[in-house]
């Protein structure tokens, strides 16, 4: 059997203090080095369990391990997108093909933003802007944990982590101010490139 590849945590694409004051150096350090690293380790460990169980022909703990793969795997993938879709030079509004599609699918940028903020205020995990390749349209999706409420086949374009570890140290219970802070550093260039990649595949 070939050697299994292990998931790895990439460094942040900017310094730990680069998103201040939207996100403090302390929170970004904990969030990336401890929380995100934990999901990478959890994914690796769950995959090791599945491999050992197959070798032993004993699947008694495999269902739990498969659940650990989706929880930690989605945690790993969404955090990677979250770091990339923020930038110290971010903010503003989308442009190009993504801006046109937001207007077509949500009526206006304000219509999209109000809906995304509603998802971010209510979700127990993430607010996502996704591309749905079946309906060929953008959708906002509130996700609990990392994988509960996902829409099958959809591709995340923009991810906002609203777990309490994402903002409580900086904002206390004021999640709304954290969401405002996110929009000051949102990296629309990254979202635009994700949108172009996925629409080239499906349209
Ligand atoms: Mn998180």
Radius of gyration: 18 Å
The portion of residues assigned to helices is: 40-55%
Relative strand content: 5-15%
Structural class: mainly alpha
Query: For the residues shown, what is the average pLDDT?
Result: 97
Low-confidence stretches: none
Number of H- or I-type helical stretches: 7
Could you give the count of β-strands? 3
Ligand inventory? manganese (III) ion
Largest sheet: 3 strands, antiparallel
Order of helices and strands: HHHHEEEHHH
- Which shape, going by the Cα principal axes? globular
First-to-last CA distance: 38 Å
Provide the fold topology.
Layout: H1 25-56, H2 62-84, H3 96-106, H4 109-122, E1 125-132, E2 137-144, E3 155-161, H5 168-171, H6 175-185, H7 188-202
Antiparallel strand pairs: 1-2, 1-3
Task: Provide structural commentary.
The mean pLDDT is 97. A hairpin with a 4-residue loop joins β1 (125-132) and β2 (137-144). The N and C termini lie far apart (38 Å). The chain is mostly helical. It has a three-stranded antiparallel sheet with strand order 2-1-3. The protein contains seven helices and three strands, in the order ααααβββααα. The longest helix is centred in the first third of the chain and has 32 residues, at 25-56. The structure holds manganese (III) ion (MN3). Residues 31, 35, 79, 161, 163, 165-166 line the site of manganese (III) ion (MN3).
């Amino acid at each position: 059997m070939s050697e299994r590849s292990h998931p790895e945590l990439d460094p942040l694409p900017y310094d730990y203090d680069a998103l201040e004051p939207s996100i403090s150096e302390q929170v970004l350090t904990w969030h990336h080095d401890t929380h995100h690293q934990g999901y990478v380790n959890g994914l690796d460990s769950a995959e090791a369990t599945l491999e050992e169980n197959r070798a032993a022909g004993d699947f008694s703990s495999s269902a739990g391990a498969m659940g650990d793969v989706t929880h930690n795997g989605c945690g790993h993938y969404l955090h990677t997108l979250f770091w990339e879709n923020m930038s110290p030079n971010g903010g503003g509004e989308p442009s190009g093909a993504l801006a046109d599609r937001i207007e077509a699918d949500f009526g206006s940028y304000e219509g999209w933003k109000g809906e995304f903020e509603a998802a971010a205020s209510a979700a127990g995990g993430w607010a996502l802007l996704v591309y749905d390749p079946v309906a060929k349209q953008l959708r906002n999706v509130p996700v609990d944990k990392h994988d509960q409420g996902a829409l099958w086949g959809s591709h995340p374009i923009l991810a906002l982590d609203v777990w309490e570890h994402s903002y409580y140290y900086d904002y206390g219970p004021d999640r709304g101010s954290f969401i405002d802070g996110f929009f000051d550093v949102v990296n629309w260039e990254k979202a635009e490139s994700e949108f172009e990649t996925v629409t080239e595949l499906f349209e």
